[in-house]
Specification:
two-stranded antiparallel ribbon; two-stranded antiparallel sheet; alpha+beta; single chain; about 10% helix; about 90 residues; Alpha-Beta Plaits
């Protein structure tokens, strides 16, 4: 029986079958800072991050992996609760 390639597509964008992200965050000039008190744990930042730099942690919270974050600002732009602010890298 032939395998269906579509059956092998992970249901989650964070599936363990995906290769780990490359360390590309060393050259950014701005970075996202997540305010946990404003975060409503909706996961929008996680879904929209093109670099998989937003990681889900225990308890349903999220954190930014600065090793892979390029500072594009999509997470901050899409956050419905404005819990993510883009700041200069040296701050």
């Amino acid at each position: 029986m032939k395998r269906n390639v579509l059956d092998e597509i992970p249901e989650s964008p964070r599936a363990t079958k995906l290769r780990p992200p490359a360390r590309t965050g060393l050259w950014r000039s701005v970075k996202p800072v997540l305010d946990g008190s404003k975060c409503v744990r909706c996961g929008v930042c996680w879904m929209y991050c093109p670099d998989r730099a937003v990681e889900k942690v225990e308890g349903g919270a999220y954190k930014i992996n600065y090793d892979v974050c390029k500072g594009c600002g999509i997470c901050a732009e899409e956050c419905p609760s404005e819990a993510i602010e883009m700041v200069e890298e040296d701050q």
